[in-house]
Amino acid sequence: VENKKNLANIQGVMQAVDEIFSSVGLKQKVKTVKGSGRKETKDGIEEEADVYIEKLTMNEMVNVFYRIEHAPMILTVKKATVKQSFENPELLNLTLVLSFLKTGAD
Questions:
Q1: How far apart are the two ends of the chain, measured CA to CA in Å?
Q2: Which of 52, 54, 56 has its CA nearest to residue 32?
Q3: Of the four listed, 41, 64, 70, 89, which is most buried by Cβ atoms within 10 Å?
Q4: What's this model's pTM, rounded to 2 decimal places?
Q5: pLDDT digits (tens, 9 = 90+) for 60-102
């Protein structure tokens, strides 16, 4: 957490989601992003978002999780649901609840 604090000029969870999915070339597969809450914690302000991504390959899904884990910001996956795509059983639909922490030092 400490080494990720000031590495990105990201202002909120929506911008963080945009940054992650743009960086792996999957922005067009993101169907919905809904802010689902904001609360103050002892470490700063935590914002959550529900993100729904359609028709990912297994490799694309792994790349998304890798980018979230190695993002230059405090971004965590609170919940992930993976379902097989109805149209193409080889593709996956991914629902994520992401949490972004904006620290007081930012």
A1: 13
A2: 52
A3: 64
A4: 0.82
A5: 999 999 999 988 888 899 999 999 999 999 999 999 999 998 8
